[in-house]
Write a structure and sequence with these properties.
Length: 590
């Protein structure tokens, strides 16, 4: 087995290490070792991913008005669901001959811009019902403005949700949640609202890091409790009286609770990482996994590295979302695929390199939009023998005459698509969420920037002060009103299904648009990156008043001094949270 090797990232010039097991993986997939470090590889991939920024345009085929992840000026041809999945066009008609005088990436981008793309990637009217306004979505019913999700019913305004029903405004709803609102990292919750990093809850509000609890309010770190308020035990009657006094059916009542909960949220220690039923894993938000490193928000991992927002990948590296992939590398949503390398939204496929929007196919190189195809290069059909011969030649040409981006980075075979060629502007893409940059910084790198997002402002028909304080006083006619976000000014509306949900769970109408609500939830999550840190238990190294104010409630093995334990955590040193090792954290859990 080859020894570990330290390399200099050709993009950021920082050092990174390729371990012996990494070399083994690259050999199995017959790809060269990376020349970009893990962070730069992730940033490059995410520059090709737009999860929630939507635009209005027309279907290029039927001219029907549609909502799309591709802006009208993106250069992309976009078809509505019915047209794209229909028989009215043939992707192979856009075929190109390979031109050895031009770089492969230039030829691929030319093809990519011509071949029609799905306006939003979902299976509406195929395996989903009434879920047109969703993206990276499958197997759902009656869902709206929900992204990176599958197996949902009656859900609205969610990002990354699995197997849920009647869930609204959730970030990372990891499974089996029902009737929940405004949640972050939850599972198996019922009838809960304003719940964070918790599971197995029923009828709880404003709680953090609680499990197997019922009827708890303003609590943190509880286990197996009922009728608790601010971590104190009450009788059923006392608890219900407290809850009634807060008037959570009113906007002012919710705002009061938010302010009180904020200090509780940040003043309580948290576990360095959420690794439940995991063996030999690093990262955060992992469950039922083994032998996987640097992974985030994934279930059922096995022998993976640098995988995020996925379910069931095996023996795969560098994936940004995907379900049940095996031996896949550098991909975006390569669901149910095997030996797929450098691909975007390519499902149920195998032995594929450099593809976008291909499904149920095998032996493709540089193809877009193909379905049930094999032995194609740049969407042109070949025999098996000619395909293999031309594929070998293209790889040789890519290595001999690589594409060079504006920064001078070389793109030989084995590199994902250059970020500067993306059909998304940087601030439209998911890269801006995890690697935020200013316009001048983006331009310096040779990437694109969007100055004008599609949105409506100044068209509101109702002032915020005229919205009823309580959901109980909100009329049906509110769905006809145009509102204005109190933060960004964007106009938005309350859809009928949304109003029905708010009434059912007895919460007031939101005063912020979906995008601002999503950003606020996202700020409570961590970046997909690890820092080496010391346990903060009894440490004088603090970033906030809340950290200095916390006092342990139990004796710890290290006594009164600072805990000596170290760990890898996704909590950056500059964040305000108090971060404990597993030992100290368990001592504090009630």
């Amino acid at each position: 087995m080859q020894n570990s090797e330290t390399k200099i990232c050709q993009n950021c010039k920082e050092l990174f290490t390729i371990e012996p097991d990494d070399f083994s993986f690259y050999e199995k997939l017959n790809v060269p070792p990376p020349t970009f470090c893990p962070d730069c590889r992730q940033q490059r991939r995410l520059a090709w991913r737009n999860d929630i920024i939507l635009s209005s345009r027309n279907c290029t085929l039927c001219n029907k008005p549609i909502v799309s992840i591709y802006a009208p000026d993106s250069g992309m041809t976009a078809y509505c669901q019915k047209c794209w999945w229909g028989d009215g066009w043939e992707p192979k008609e856009y075929r190109q001959d390979y031109d050895p005088s031009k770089s492969f990436f230039e030829q691929f981008i030319e093809l990519q811009r011509r071949v029609p793309a799905l306006t939003m990637v979902n299976d509406n009217e195929i395996r989903s019902i009434n879920s047109e306004y969703t993206h990276d979505f499958s197997l759902g019913k009656n869902c709206y403005m929900t992204f990176v999700a599958w197996k949902l019913e009656d859900c609205l305004y969610n990002y990354y949700a699995i197997n849920c029903k009647e869930v609204v405004d959730a970030l990372y709803s990891m499974g089996d949640c029902e009737l929940t609102y405004e949640t972050v990292y939850t599972e198996k919750c019922y009838g809960c609202k304003y719940v964070y990093y918790s599971g197995l809850l029923s009828n709880c509000s404003f709680v953090y890091d609680c499990r197997d609890c019922t009827d708890c309010f303003m609590c943190v770190g509880l286990r197996h409790k009922r009728y608790c308020f601010k971590n104190k035990q009450y009788t059923k009657e006392e608890y219900e009286k407290i809850l009634e006094e807060y008037r959570l059916d009113t906007y002012s009542g919710v705002e009061r609770a938010k302010e009180e909960f904020k200090s509780i949220y940040y003043s309580s220690p948290r576990r360095f990482a959420s690794l439940r039923n995991c063996v030999n894993c690093t990262g955060d938000g992992l469950t039922n996994s083994k032998n996987s490193k640097f992974c985030f928000n994934v279930q059922r991992l096995e022998n993976d590295k640098w995988v995020e927002n996925s379910d069931g990948p095996i023996d795969s590296y560098d994936l940004s979302t995907g379900g049940e992939s095996s031996f896949c590398y550098e991909g975006i949503t390569t669901d149910n695929s095997y030996h797929v390398r450098f691909a975007i939204f390519t499902w149920k496929s195998s032995e594929v390199d450099y593809a976008d929007g291909c499904h149920s196919s095998k032996y493709l190189f540089g193809c877009c939009g193909l379905k049930k195809a094999e032995y194609c290069i740049l969407n042109k059909q070949y025999t098996k023998e000619k395909y293999e011969k031309l594929r070998t030649r293209i790889i040789e040409d890519m290595n001999a005459r690589p594409y060079v981006d504006k920064k001078g980075n070389e793109y030989k075979y084995g590199e994902f698509f250059p970020a500067e060629l993306s059909y998304f502007r940087y601030n439209e893409s998911a890269a801006q969420d995890y690697f935020p940059l200013k316009k001048d910084e983006v331009k310096e790198r040779g990437w694109q920037w969007q100055d004008h997002f599609q949105m409506t402002t100044g068209k509101e028909t109702m002032k915020m002060e005229d919205i009823p304080e309580s959901i109980n006083d909100t009329p049906d006619s509110i769905t006809n009103a145009v509102l204005a976000c109190v933060e960004c000014g964007r106009n938005y509306k309350i859809v009928p299904a949304e109003l029905k949900f708010y009434r059912k769970v007895k919460i007031p109408l939101p005063r912020h648009c979906f995008y601002c609500r999503h950003r606020a939830r996202f700020a409570l999550s961590n970046l997909h990156k690890l820092w080496h840190r010391n346990c903060m238990c009894n440490s004088q190294m603090t970033n906030s008043i809340e950290q200095m104010a916390y006092r342990n409630t139990a004796e710890h093995p290290h006594g009164n001094g600072a805990c000596p334990n170290e760990f890898e955590t996704s909590y950056a040193p500059y964040r305000p949270e108090i971060v404990y090792c597993e030992q100290c954290y368990q001592a504090e859990v009630v």
